[in-house]
Amino acid sequence: MNRKVVAGLFVSLDGVVEAPERWHFPYLSEEMAEAINGIAKVVASTPLTQVTWNNSTLIEGDPVAAVKELKGRPGGTITLSGSISLVRALLAAGLLDELRLLVHPLVVGTGMRLFPEGAPPVPLELSRSVTFTNGVLDLTYRPA
Fold this sequence. Notes:
Number of strands: 7
Radius of gyration: 15 Å
CATH class: Alpha Beta
CATH superfamily: Dihydrofolate Reductase, subunit A
Strand content: 25-35%
CATH architecture: 3-Layer(aba) Sandwich
Number of helices: 3
Order of helices and strands: EHEEHEHEEE
Strand order of the largest sheet: 3-2-4-1-5-7-6
């Protein structure tokens, strides 16, 4: 049986996912930290040679191929965070089982969006939603 691949991103109301370190931290809450820290994470990064965040593993080589290989191994859910290009690539490759968006009640105005202008349609269905006390929406989507 294949493992589930879940991607999580911080996103503003206007769809910006770039540089959340500039706008996310005022909204950081205990609810969010508990949801993120307890799960195993896979990190795709070219500049990093090691990762030290809780339950994190660094992908080496082609990240889409690595995720495909990880998905075929026994184990629990594979969670990816922060890589906009990898989330796009995994959606296109049909490897993403869930897209978890933490939507912040903030308009950033500029920055890279998860789905750029002119991107092909990606049909998704909402499978779970939670509202945190700070107004952040925790939305989980699956491919439709």
